[in-house]
Each structure stands twice: as structure tokens, then as C-alpha cells.
Amino acid sequence: MPANNPINSPGLPLAQPDQGVTRQVLAELPEMMMVSFRFDTGAEGALHSHPHVQSTHCRSGRFRFTLGSDTFDIKAGDSFLIPSGIEHGCVCLEAGELIDCFTPRRDDFL
């Protein structure tokens, strides 16, 4: 495959950004990035914000999200968007996986 092929293969490095959370970049280009986050039950994604627009898809499990001043639960199959600069975070209610896309790419994840 050419060196500029945008397809990434499984086996990219794993990171552990928080206790009980594993992050793996699935694919990335400067304009967009797709990332898998796996959570153990009770693990938290700390409240934070960033300039990137984010889409989140719940592949499995159940999560309680805080997005700005709102709190809501999601389950497998649910998706939502996080605008740039909005504080957000989550608590995992049932072990699972979130697939997040960021635009532009989160260079701090590389």
C-alpha cells in the first residue's frame, strides 16, 4: 500500500488515559481521527474540553455523560455530537466501548 494510505491497521499502540480506560487510535489524517475508548464499569472520562468537534458512538455498554450543564445516559447504538469548547466527561455504568471521531485530528493522542 502507498505510504499515504489513510487505512490504519489494528495493533496500533494502546494508551491508558485514566484508570480503567484504554484508548486506541483506529485511523487518522490531519482533518479527522477515529478513536476507540474501552471502559471498565465505574471508570470515568474526566471532565475536559478541547477545540475539536467530536462525535461519539456507543458501540457497547452504558454510560452517563455530562455535556455542559446537561447529564444523560447512553447505551449501545446511541450517538451524539460534542461542539468545540464544551466541557464534557462520562462515567461508565456498564463496561463498554465508545468510538469517537474528532475533527481536526487530536495530535495529543499521537
From TrEMBL:
It comes from Thalassovita autumnalis. It holds the Pfam family Cupin_2. This is Cupin domain protein. Residues 37-93 form the Cupin type-2 domain. InterPro entries: Bacilysin_H2HPP_isomerase, Cupin_2, KdgF, RmlC-like_jellyroll, RmlC_Cupin_sf. It comes from the Bacteria.
